[in-house]
From TrEMBL:
Keywords on record: Fatty acid metabolism, Lipid metabolism, Transit peptide
Keyword Lipoprotein set for record: no
Family to which the UniProt record says this protein belongs: Belongs to the enoyl-CoA hydratase/isomerase family.
Protein name: Enoyl-CoA hydratase domain-containing protein 3, mitochondrial
NCBIfam families cross-referenced by the UniProt entry: PRK08139.1
InterPro entries listed in its UniProt record: ClpP/crotonase-like_dom_sf, Enoyl-CoA_hydra/iso, Enoyl-CoA_hydra_C, Mitochondrial_ECH-domain
UniProt cross-references to SUPFAM superfamilies, sorted A to Z: ClpP/crotonase
Gene source species: Candidatus Thiodictyon syntrophicum
Keyword Transcription regulation: no
């Protein structure tokens, strides 16, 4: 029996926390236990002031193969199980979006179904050049309706429908063209490039990043005029912070800023 504490590994280094999905033998399939472990990890990070940036990675040959179909099959006739599974998955995705720190997906191998959903949910995604992405539920009679939510907020409707209706995998170059990922790197350089990006973000004001991330996702759901009104208010509040005052002063004085997080 798998120890739930080992399903998600955590490593902290200079303000950057790496969470690694740790079911390599199952391509890091998201069992209910895995979903709960990952959600707990994000909850812990949310209140950890030492953490500035999160990297989400997968152990073994792939990033994440989606939901654990063996577990799903064993509980297929139990509607309570299905409701709990998809509710827990949705709550995890919302926890990532609401986390007041940037989350970077470090993708290799495969990212399929709910694994593709994880990539789309993270704020940024760096992928190895040999990675593959898919929402293949249609091929087994189970449309990827919940992955669709995150996917359709990253790529255009026709690109999303292409992936959802065909179930065909797309390569890293197509994922970049679709807007699902930010950058492609050789597999050998994936860890180093993701770490460099995380380190760059960790050097920013954590308060400013938190304000900006929350504002970004909130304004996406608003009509244009309301989005401008909300964003204007967010900038006014941001300008009153000590970090904004320090940042402006440092720019004018031509010196590095000293962030205090307030």
């Amino acid at each position: 029996m798998t120890d739930e504490n080992s399903l998600v590994l955590r490593q902290d280094d200079a303000g950057v926390t790496t969470l690694t999905l740790n079911r390599p033998q199952a391509r890091n399939a998201l069992s209910r236990a895995m979903l709960k472990a990952l959600h707990r990890a994000f909850d812990d990070i949310a209140t950890d002031q030492a953490v500035r940036v999160v990297i989400l990675a997968g152990a073994g040959p792939g990033f994440c193969a989606g939901h654990d179909l063996k577990e799903v099959r064993a509980n297929q006739e139990d509607q309570t199980y299905a409701e709990a599974l998809f509710a827990e998955c949705a709550e995890l995705m919302l926890a990532i979006v609401r986390l007041p720190k940037p989350v970077i997906a470090r993708v290799h191998g495969i990212a399929t179904a709910a694994g593709c959903q994880l990539v789309a949910t993270c704020d940024l995604a760096i992928t190895a050049d040999d990675a593959r992405f898919a929402t293949p539920g249609v091929n087994i009679g189970l449309f990827c309706s919940t992955p669709m939510v995150a996917l359709s907020r990253n790529v255009t409707p026709k690109q999303a429908m292409q992936m959802l209706l065909t179930g065909d995998p797309i390569d890293a170059a197509t994922a970049l063209r679709f807007g699902l990922v930010n950058e492609i790197v050789p597999a050998a350089g994936l860890e180093a490039r993701t770490a460099a990006l995380a380190s760059q973000l960790a050097g920013k004001s954590p308060l400013t990043l938190a304000i900006g991330k929350a504002a970004f996702y909130h304004q996406l759901e608003l009509p244009l005029a309301e989005a401008y009104d909300y964003s204007r208010q967010a900038m006014v509040r941001n300008l009153q912070t000590l970090d904004a005052q320090e940042g402006i002063a440092a720019f004018i004085d031509k010196r590095p800023p000293r962030w205090c997080g307030h």
